[in-house]
Amino acid sequence: xxxxxxxxxxxxxxxxxxxxxxxxxxxxxxxxxxxxxxxxxxxxxxxxxxxxxxxxxxxxxxxxxxxxxxxxxxxxxxxxxxxxxxxxxxxxxxxxxxxxxxxxxxxxxxxxxxxxxxxxxxxxxxxxxxxxxxxxxxxxxxxxxxxxxxxxxxxxxxxxxxxxxxxxxxxxxxxxxxxxxxxxxxxxxxxxxxxxxxxxxxxxxxxxxxxxxxxxxxxxxxxxxxxxxxxxxxxxxxxxxxxxxxxxxxxxxxxxxxxxxxxxxxxxxxxxxxxxxxxxxxxxxxxxxxxxxxxxxxxxxxxxxxxxxxxxxxxxxxxxxxxxxxxxxxxxxxxxxxxxxxxxxxxxxxxxxx
Length: 354
Known about the structure:
elongated
């Protein structure tokens, strides 16, 4: 493949079509890192307001390192994949504590930071420092697969090996950051998953899938993930003007976030045994409530789970709050829910309480 021609055509296209995105306004490694972590498995337009709020609240990595984790999680709320936020905070602390507030300049150093893998490290190193570091993420993986005519699933071991080998070939010694951004932009805007705009692609003449009329079958689809149906209950327990909250512990779906007492249930729909609900609340919190009344049903999906969440209201009868170091429990006012980082469904329940 003529990489010099490919790069020249791609950069010419990027000069005309690059989107005006807030994280592209500087090569500050803090902003590059923040944007790349936020963009993992998340659309650009979803990320834009979160990025702007984060840099307004914490303009530097030192500011973020000094923040309380609960404040970071509250700002992240709604963006999903909350482990990213916890890793973000932990990595900021490490940059300050171990690197004097300066990000490592190479891929090897960057990958020692929590939550920074090979792709994110390559993006930071190339965009912030112009290091000749390759990148492979969702958009470029699709683009590379079509350019090379890859017939292996992109997520397979063989597929990943081939994609990274191509990425190492295409990245130049100088100008790597701009080229990597152009590759990602072309994947996002032109070489799309469905109906790629091959007639508008500046490098279509370099594309094996285009030549083979195989853009509909490349990249090769991965085996579909099995969807698991899950039923859960959430109980809003009141004590006067207060409601009961529990922080999700390590290993739970929303670790670090606060939620109303929530647990899986066995029976169909909202009409299962009251004692199962009462026992669930007491097991998680130590609080004994009266018979919960069904209030609403929410449906949502998380990774491979499709969840039906039946929401209940109840009143405290007795018992004492039982907290653990990993999963504290507390009473808060309804107004105080605005300050607590909640899951998406927890925030919907809280909105109904107002």
